[in-house]
User: What shape does this take?
Amino acid sequence: MHLPPLADLRATARVVALPLHTRFRGIDVREAMLLEGPEGWTEFSPFTEYGDEESATWLAAAIAWGWEPAPPARRDTIPVNATVPAVAAASVPDVLSRFDGCRTAKVKVAEPGQVLADDVARVRAVREAMGPEGRIRIDANGGWNLDEAEHAVHALAAFDLEYVEQPCASVEELAELRRRIRYMGIPIAADESVRKAADPVAVARAGAADLLVIKAQPLGGVARALAVVAEAGLPAVVSSALDTSVGLSMGVALAASLPDLEFDCGLGTASLLAADVTAEPLRPRDGALTVGRVAPDAAMLDAHEAAADRRDWWLARLERCHAVLAG
Assistant: This one.
């Protein structure tokens, strides 16, 4: 990877703070840094709690997207799922209404402070709203231990699950859960075991997952993510990290360049944002997103510019992560 000088990155850096419609991943505001490279605008937005080593991988992805040509696209549109945060069941219809035409919903479960009954009520509400033809996948973000996961899958299986995403934290637990529930015919997808692992293919090698959830920024960019999928030899779902529309366009390019795309992708998350960096956000229309780069609007960057202390924080982080890549 060609590493641009830090001064070149700082020269175009803009930091934004975007409010969310509903609390998600424990946050109400999503901060992100946007950069402009010779190929177009790109995004550097590791979550604030991530350390510099992990965040540097996200910076590598941002640089690759802004400074290198996009890979050839195999498709023009990407079908996407709705994303339902860990809301009360009564709020489900309102959430789903923001995802135009989506036939699939990913439902967050195992939220800290909630119980399985909350998950059951939420998933039931999604099934009622989407009807029997809708597809439902659940995402526990590694929040269950092995026995809790097995119990939860049994409790939620009545709602005809497409797959269960990261039910447990460790590869060993995933492998054992997969063995226990194989007779149910519910696949297991790995997310954190891919994007947060020193070896992102280890979960596939261990036979601990039926498919991979891949994200462009956490894996170091589109090319790196494609290499992970090729090595793993498993179906892949491309998902987002609650990016702005600029960052989502990177994920869309990844989905567009995969040899096979069997599942709807988790790239419709701009619908969770109450504001974005463009007047035409990359939100689902008829259940799909259009492939192509996204440029922010200057007025939107100004309107949602982060406070000075947060901008300074991100610039310091940029400098540290650049040093990691340079080292």
Remarks:
- The first strand starts at residue 14 and ends at 24.
- DSSP finds twelve helices and twelve strands in the chain.
- The mean pLDDT is 97.
